[in-house]
């Protein structure tokens, strides 16, 4: 039998995983995979690192929101532990899971059992922290931290949309300086997003031609504009239209430097960050992830 470490957040997604734990273990066991559950609590990085470095496990499975999956991936990359990671999404947005084509519990189990592996890109910020789907900055990124937990439980990503719309009138611009593969941009902006796949912040198909394996990041800059224009951009994204707008700059790069004289709220894969100014580099095909054959 193959062995897998199953790291899960017991409270993520309304305690979804504890309620399904026996089913998950049985599904893998029937297919020759012996899974050891590891209940995640604060300050567990050292223990998880020790377990993954032991050589006992053929792969690791992470189940939670994007932040926990980011933490496990950072251990693998920091310690150069070359085992694949399987994703069982149980958070609110599950951006990275959806970027690689995983949308449900059963689908994620089937994909891991099937065993096909995608070697995907990751971004690294200031040579210290990796991100899988999104590095973002601006007032709007605070939405995920101020959204009521009951609202998130009942409405999922739509809770963020509702909260974001309510904050449009209060959003303040900030100065931003960006250098991406030699192209310089400077001005007043409301939001920046650096993304690795099609989905970010719960918005599906935000970048339709994004590729997890091409070595390039997609950079989205929302210029300072009126509340009406910002709401228009917001609704375009909600309706899954292309974000083709005079107030939005989109570009691709392998490296970029980004800075500001203003204080900016930041998030890395849905978790708060203080890594700024930021030097971002994209690493091509360095993380092995169980994924469907076609994305």
UniProtKB/TrEMBL annotation:
Gene3D superfamilies: 2.60.200.40, Probable inorganic polyphosphate/atp-NAD kinase, domain 1 (3.40.50.10330). InterPro entries: ATP-NAD_kinase_N, Diacylglycerol/lipid_kinase, Diacylglycerol_kinase_cat_dom, Lipid_Phosphate_FormReg, NAD/diacylglycerol_kinase_sf, YegS/DAGK_C. Residues 1-130 form the DAGKc domain. Keywords: ATP-binding, Kinase, Lipid biosynthesis, Lipid metabolism, Magnesium, Metal-binding, Nucleotide-binding, Phospholipid biosynthesis, Phospholipid metabolism, Transferase. One of its GO terms (molecular function) is metal ion binding. The keyword Kinase applies. This is YegS/Rv2252/BmrU family lipid kinase. The lineage of its organism: Bacteria, Bacillati, Bacillota, Clostridia, Eubacteriales.
